[in-house]
């Protein structure tokens, strides 16, 4: 759902004042582009799925074991994110934690308490590729409100902020922006990409494609759609069951107790990451498991580029 | 919510422990009222102070008062479990998984092929089928079970009980016999070819065991004429949440904890070879 | 001979089965590691001030058919090669060190301050870096580990490439300021930085000297630390790694460049390297024959407890 053009224009000060009324955070993407006086989070999932949280406590007392679940908690916060990051929450995280029964109460509580706002993008960075995976820099989809900086103020679609209607010069500015984005948008991946990747599983190309990857967890930990976690018991006579972020890049991710490991080679884990995002998730849920935010490309220590990897595999199939 | 939260276990005392082999024990715990399950489903067993691990439920749901888990000592959680005694506390979280498609098996003849500890999930379905309330809903039952050596056969008392029944055929084999073993000696897939000469129309085969045994058994079943859709198996993957959330147990687009662990060979053929 | 000529010749004459070098990346001011196998690929071999990755990390991850490999080595990469040979991870005769004198690696974050900067708008000129027509002293743009580098040119090499004018920049004591702070302030510095760490292990995986099949951080039996990135566990990980690297760190700074959250993690390892230098007069990767202080047993060890 793109911007309707039926929004209002407010001054920058009014917009900032409105944002300052509650606890507001911005994502690192937004913080990098605009000087906003709010704390930033490196990735949007940090506010919905914390890096580590305790799910229940256990302890030995009065000659018996005790387990106390910790109640889900959430305080109302507002997160201002790029449209791709909003899409990550609605298309992937919600689908896994809310759409896949049973619902995760910890995620659900934080999600209910979250106001998710989209701050539109006026240009594509070298690392952006949202339009390749079905997103758009001006998309309002899934967001509780939409904002876009104009030369004369902030264009706003949503409730809670009153402003004036668009002037004709501002309408022109928006149209010019839409046209410019259309021209510079990276083209979508071929339609059957999930199927091509699926069929390419057993091919010889993966060793070559995966070479160079360090198999660290930088991309997965900062990725807004990566949700894999580990459940770790900490403590002996007293402690807690902790949920922490985990990564399919780590060698122990799929290590069985019998020491069998279906993904013991780095190449297998890289292949899993590509296929999970661009093949398995779309085949299951109908949307890509990647929103094209480009963090992984920007932050990879060796500039391993997932876009190139997908292109290479697809071109082998075609 | 049964146990106050989808990740929280219910604490239960161990009622009984049976030593099956030198490294396999069967644990019996009281069955909570809310715990309704199907054969082939699994649960997460929590050992306080140590951790959690998934195990298939080896008792049939027709047993109203208890749950049984047959557990091989392999890693830290199973090692800790094996050191527990009746009366000690464990936690239970579940049931999870898809279980066997019991409705689709009604009226069919069932060929169970098990290897080693693989008999544990099969036992849940076998006893379900053999129970008085369900026996007449299913056709003939043929059980082929093998282990590496006679000492590795599990559920020995159960095997005796089954052997005595007239409404099933039981065939045991070991890879290597010993002085006192008077039964058959041979690998399960080979023995299968020898003892199952029937036309396989109306039969469904359920296979469980070590990966290599499953692979060759399925090959033998295909030779005997079983269609891929009539071969069922259970797969193992490293699991943590059991709820399709932690992302760990996927084989291709299938989550073993939700779409499995029971899969037909037809589905297996569609999966990437990564298990 | 230029770098490309030397590399091409090595492949053409089958002296090596592969050349580990850098290639242009998919983003401005980035390069990526590549194993060149075919002489015609050498066209894409580059070496510029954005080649901060330590290629020696890949020496232990080569395909089986590559028996002998050439590696494009800056001073620090060369040290890593020597250190790996010293630790019996590599055979010296299977390694051909293609040394390149290094001008220092530019901290790409500094360049992010210019919006929309294109690659052709940045050039190096002697000891200066010219960004959009304005010249700045190069030293102010370099990574912390490069500003204090002692060995810009590899000490041990098989071929040393002439790369024209390489400025000899003064060696800065980048840790002086931190060392001058009182203990509470130093603690606060590390507490603040390490509390941001998310334990993605990019620093460890980029390090050429971290090659353990199972890292102590991922060990379950016994478990030394938890996966959760609490401050306590983060300290255990980084200080533990610093201890494991004492006497082995080659001060390349690849760890800090790899960190996605830009934590100045090299500070810790460089400080440990300075301590080893001061107390044991030892630097890793400088002399193949020199005994490393923490892995060498001597009957006449000065410390009684170990005799």
TrEMBL record, chain B:
GO terms for biological process: pyrimidine nucleotide biosynthetic process. Keywords: 2Fe-2S, Iron, Iron-sulfur, Metal-binding. Gene3D superfamilies: Nucleotide-binding domain of ferredoxin-NADP reductase (FNR) module, Translation factors. Its cofactor is [2Fe-2S] cluster. InterPro entries: Cbr1-like_FAD-bd_dom (IPR008333), Cyt_c3_hydrogenase_gsu (IPR012165), Dihydroorotate_DH_Fe-S-bd (IPR019480), FAD-bd_FR_type (IPR017927), Flavoprot_Pyr_Nucl_cyt_Rdtase (IPR001709), FNR_nucleotide-bd (IPR039261), OxRdtase_FAD/NAD-bd (IPR001433), PyrK_electron_transfer (IPR050353). Binds 1 [2Fe-2S] cluster per subunit. Residues 7-102 form the FAD-binding FR-type domain. PANTHER family: ANAEROBIC SULFITE REDUCTASE SUBUNIT B, DIHYDROOROTATE DEHYDROGENASE B (NAD(+)), ELECTRON TRANSFER SUBUNIT. This is Hydrogenase.
